[in-house]
Design goal:
This protein has about 220 residues and is α/β, with parallel strands linked by helices. It has a single domain, classed as Rossmann fold (3-Layer(aba) Sandwich). It contains eight helices and eight strands. The protein is globular.
Length: about 220
Amino acid sequence: MTTQSPPTVSAEPAELAARILAQLNGDDRFILGLTGPPGTGKSTVVTAIAEALHPHRVAVVPMDGFHLANTVIRGTALQQRKGAIDTFDAAGYAHLIRRLHQRDEAVVYAPSYVRAMEEPIAASIAVPKDVQIVITEGNYLLSSEPEWEAARAAMDQVWYLDTPDHLRLERLTNRHIDFGKTAERAAAWASGTDENNARAIAQTRDRADLVLQGT
């Protein structure tokens, strides 16, 4: 049996915001996931969508807040693969998304990730109960591993951001340089660790509800 590929649309923020609004059901909370390989521009697209949704209240909850802390991976094999799927607290992320879906707490606090420190910061994003739209973004939202599937089950939709490889690699390299790596080390990390992750993530593309064509 062949699997039908999801439809592809432009990553135009106003159009994507309109898609979200069209799917709201009364006052029910809508949770959208945005995934794709590293360097595709997920954070940029999510920020633009959130701005386009104004005046609706939107909470953005990044999966990166569930990076294992450097104190956990330092001195282990995981340190050289930071960003790989097994360097995240997947069960913790799934638990958070379920809490956000249940919407039975006055406020849920989520962690963020500070790239300048390369560390997650606990309880730094507040999501009050009256926030109707929650957007979460990260690399592994469509993984078939049990913890990630549990998180996916608590989302209404997951969209996949597809960006040309040459742009993605250029952005990744520049980002690594901006946060302290040498040009040589940045290029090696982008084409090595990051690219290994990107290939695995690309295999989940057809599990998305929608594919966004990034630039």
